[in-house]
Design a protein that fits this description.
Distance between the termini: 51 Å
Shape: globular
Radius of gyration: 19 Å
Structural class: alpha/beta
Strand order of the largest sheet: 3-2-1-4-5-6-10
Largest sheet: 7 strands, parallel
Helix content: 40-55%
Number of helices: 12
Strand content: 15-25%
Number of strands: 12
């Protein structure tokens, strides 16, 4: 039987990868998205070509969210609509609170209203997609984050996501909603807006611009290919347990400087005429409140969902570089939205 998904924020980086994963698995998919600066027109066009229905709307608009739920009557809801860039959250915290907190409230209330209006139908699970950044920073010898790690957010972004996680769990306990929370590590892959580390470094290097590395580049992250993440989210909807939290990580912990140097090595092979690209690395003042290390223990997801990351980081990074090398048409409409300037000062 075909299942119907409603994906908030589905025109974004992770959301679009999830939509393509769901379509491939036989789901019918509707996206609800405000199409803000990070939603590339090329991504929206690719979703429509794949058969995805797109409803344009702001997740903070409770009547619009409720109308989308009523129109779709989804078998599962994936909530990804959020502001996500830490540096932007330092400059514009209000946008992060209103979208990530009030938007999540709108989704939860629409889900509750939909359930109450259609009590003969099975209650749709809500997969609430969050981040490992809600847990704060790890020390060099600390074990990875897991589902029992206490919350300790450091930035306006991670604080707003932590608040949204708490709302999701509270609505599950108080109102009996089927809510499943995921906390993922840093994603990479195609169609990521160039404010994030990997696409920013690729594009700057191609243009001979400086590659700004915060501090001494020792901050560490666990890298997860977006397609592996999408598979995990689908499995949470299909096989996860109500009220359960799943940590999703790629098992590829690297320092920021290691990642930038790896990008330079790929570009040296692809564009030898402008090598060495690591000559462009420039260490800059660190970001305020910059967490030093993230790492994720994905053992529960592997045991309960039958999921494991498939992409080797070095191979996945090379594929990502190659995608951006051919992405001129996708990138062109974004040029006026962000000039790759430093944010979060």
């Amino acid at each position: 039987m075909t299942r119907t998904a409603l994906v908030t924020g589905g025109a974004g980086f992770i959301g679009s990868a999830l939509c393509f994963e769901l379509i491939e698995a036989g789901w019918t998919v509707t996206v609800f998205d405000a199409l803000t600066y990070a939603a590339a027109p090329g991504t929206a066009a690719a979703l429509k070509a794949a058969g995805v229905r797109l409803i344009e709307g702001d997740v903070r608009d409770r009547s619009a969210v409720r109308a989308a739920f009523d129109a779709v009557r989804p078998d599962a809801v994936f909530h990804l609509a959020a502001e996500t860039h830490v540096d932007r959250s330092i400059d514009a915290a209000d946008d992060f609170v209103t979208t990530n907190v009030n938007g999540t409230l709108a989704v939860l209330e629409a889900l509750r209203a939909r359930r109450d209006a259609d009590q003969d139908a099975p209650a749709a699970p809500l997969v609430h997609i969050s981040t490992d950044e809600v847990f704060g920073a790890l020390g060099p010898e600390d074990p990875p984050f897991n589902e029992a790690t206490a919350y300790d957010p450091s930035s306006p972004y991670s604080a707003s996501k932590a608040a949204s996680d708490h709302l999701a769990r509270a609505w599950a306990r108080t109102y009996g909603l089927d809510v499943r929370v995921s906390n993922c590590s840093n994603n990479y892959g195609p169609r990521q807006f160039p404010e994030k580390l990997i696409p920013l470094m690729i594009l700057n290097a191609l243009e001979g611009r400086a590659l700004p590395v915060y501090g001494d580049g020792s901050n560490r992250r666990d890298w997860l290919h977006v397609d592996d993440h999408a598979r995990a989210l689908r499995r949470i909807a299909e096989a996860g347990a109500p009220g359960r939290t799943y940590c999703i990580g790629g098992g590829a912990e690297r320092s920021n400087l290691e990642v930038v140097r790896a990008i330079c090595a790929v570009l040296d092979a692809r564009r030898p005429q402008t090598a060495p690209h690591d000559r462009l690395i420039a260490f800059v003042d660190d970001r305020p409140g910059h967490d030093w290390r993230y790492a994720v223990d994905a053992a529960r997801a592997q045991a309960e969902l039958g999921w494991a990351p498939r992409r080797d980081f070095e191979a996945g990074l090379a594929e990502t570089v190659d995608w951006y090398l051919e992405a001129g048409a996708w990138l062109a409409p974004l040029a006026g939205r962000y000039g790759r300037e430093r944010l979060g000062l």
